[in-house]
Amino acid sequence: MATAMSTECWTRWQRPSVNRPATRADLFSGAIPFLGLGFGTGLIPRAPGTFGTLAAIPLAVAAALAGQWAYLLVTLLAVTGGVVICEETARLLGAHDHAAIVWDEIAGFLVTMLLVPMTAVNVIAGFILFRLFDILKPWPIRRIDRQVGGGLGIILDDLVAGLFAALTLLLLVQTGLFGPYTGIS
Asked: Tell me: the pLDDT tens digits for 26-84?
């Protein structure tokens, strides 16, 4: 029975589907959906990706305060664990890359902030840049979003958007637009 359901879910991912709304019951059905739904931010009906990215800010700041190695470890765990988190949450909701799944935005924002000091200006600029790249999806982000399936597909386009945002932010910081550059935080 589980195999048939799993196969049907994968088949459904291959064609457009009508997403059922995610619910509080989904949010509290386990640790994985709680993370996948961004601690509840994915349930916000308008702009859940933006609110998911906002939820990443305290995590990014706390990890940065713990030091560079802690930040790298948190980012690595968010990215690698994110594949499973996104895939299992998608299975629960019955749709590939359901709008309520925002763990990919959380991981993407962590990547965005990897190369610059964690200052208020950098966080705001990183937030804006990440959201722009995630929403506009320039090449190859759009191609990845459309062609890669499963949990990897859900998270990979946001990781590339985060990488684009990180490199753009680093360039802006290094040019002195945001004050003196003090190296990787």
From this structure: 888 999 999 999 999 999 999 999 999 999 999 999 999 999 999 999 999 999 999 99
CB neighbourhood size of 144 (10 A): 18
Q: Give the domain range for residue 24.
A: 2-174
Question: The pTM is what?
Answer: 0.85
Question: Burial, 99: exposed, middle or buried (Cβ in 10 Å; 0-12, 13-18, 19+)?
Answer: middle
**What SS3 state is found at 67?**
coil
| Contact residues for 53 (Cβ-Cβ < 8 A; gap 6+) | 102, 105, 106, 108, 109, 127, 130, 131, 134
d(CA 16, CA 103): 21
Residue 120 domain flag? yes
**Separation of alpha carbons 62 and 99, rounded Å:** 26
Q: What is the rounded CA–CA span in Å between residue 149 and residue 94?
A: 14
The rounded distance, in Å, linking the Cα atoms of 41 and 51 is 6
Which two three-digit tokens encode residue 162? 């985060």
Collect all residues with Cβ–Cβ distance below 8 Å to 37 and sequence separation of at least 6.
22, 26, 27, 43, 89, 100, 101, 102, 103
Q: How many domains does the chain have?
A: 1
What number of helices (H) and strands (E) belong to the chain?
Answer: 9, 0
